[in-house]
Amino acid sequence: MSKDKLIIFDTTLRDGEQSPGASMTRDEKVRIAKVLEKMKVDVIEAGFAIASPGDFDAVKAVANAVKDSTVCSLARAVEGDIARAADALKNAASSRIHTFIATSPIHMKYKLKMEPPQVIEQAVKAVTYARQFTDNVEFSLEDASRSEFEFMCRIIEACINAGAGTINIPDTVGYGEPGQFGETIGKLIQNIPNADKAVFSVHCHNDLGLAVANSLSAVVHGARQVECTINGLGERAGNASLEEIVMAVATRKDVFPVETGIDTRHIVPASRLVSNITGFPVQPNKAIVGANAFAHESGIHQDGVLKHRETYEIMRAEDVGWNTNKLVMGKHSGRAAFKARLEELGVVFGTPEELNEAFARFKELADKKHEIFDEDLQALVSDVNSTEVGETYRLKSMEVHSKTGSTPHAEIELMVAGQSQRTSADGSGPVDASFKAIEKIAQSGTDLQLYSVNAITSGTDSQGEVTVRLERDGRIVNGNGADTDIVVASVKAYLNALNIMMSRVERAHPQSGGV
Length: 515
Ligand code: KIV
Ligand code: ZN
Hints:
Distance between the termini: 45 Å
Structural class: alpha/beta
CATH architecture of the largest domain: Alpha-Beta Barrel
Bound molecules: 3-methyl-2-oxobutanoic acid, zinc ion
Number of helices: 16
CATH topology of the largest domain: TIM Barrel
Largest sheet: 8 strands, parallel, barrel
CATH superfamily of the largest domain: Aldolase class I
Number of strands: 18
Strand content: 15-25%
């Protein structure tokens, strides 16, 4: 018997980007969207078009670049937001407008300052208006898991009548519990007279670590769309993770009455790309995409797996894209092969100069590192693709001294808005000395909130990938840098974070205020 389709709605580029410090440039969003498209994600929420001109451009660029997935923009339930979303999506092969309003007593009273009948009226108006631009409209009840059941039934029925084809029930604050949340979805579907005219969707946050469990329980009770993100990225503790939902459904066919259209072999590459772009590392024990997810440490397990894989493995590593870490390029690879491979990874250079610069960096890297993997290429391009960020600070040269028994010292030459400036400083280690030297020039007034180093591939010649998170006046940015020398990678990451801090404009948060 054929199963129902479970629609996978990815919101890495919208809710994922709401993680503090996870903001992405337009080009980065397009690269991620291309991988999601290859993975056969059904709907890609590309952003919140009204938030800023940059967000609008990013939604528009994703809408232009993606052909096989539906591209969606979020919009509050107001005409200005909806018109902006429609404008950004106008070139999409297939588009969706996702409009929302809060429905819980606490949100209606304190955030919206509206009475429940006004909220229904506004929601209906918004859906009706959105339908003027597209027949694919989704309506979300923000904070649904703390909303009153009867009120949800009323507003959902009205919005379906107004033309919403998808009704999304978010667990905005991660308050849901699997049994109760799933039952609520089932009861909504049973009680709303026109429920059969819409797809019911869920969007769960992970504040109690239950986002995936809540989403899957909803699927058992009739939800046919799940909103999720790569690596579970998202506001606060994140959203339900795409890879866990998809692999649970694929692995437990006996339990879930649905199937997804996802090509799971793109899961690990997508996870790496998102981690690389956002600078949010994946914890080693993360299900499916963590470095240890398929590693068997104990002798008993290893012995079992060697005798018969299924003794300890419920999924095949290669089915989710592990082992794609193959040698792709080397010192003798030419420009055409380099360009072609990057195009396969979703990277298209805007100008011949960008390609030349990236290729020069590739040659430099290939001199230091014999085997170049996809991950190395992605890191290299993240370094190059900084045209949108602007480069107020650029590393020209550096020298660090580190010797047992003596104080580490760094000498750094930076190009600052085109002018060379030299400086030096001592520190508790070579990285600390380098950052102090940079700060002597930049005097940024930022606070270092996070410093992390990861090896991109294996082996001691691997590139170190560094993330630096800086905060200033409540604004948080992440910078990334990669190099075979981790002190150089650290300096690149620090400068990248400073450049982002200098150039990014503030954006409106979709859920921060009234409509
Ligand atoms: O968490 C939430 O409620 C949201 C909505 C805007 C869908 O992100
Ligand atoms: Zn959300």
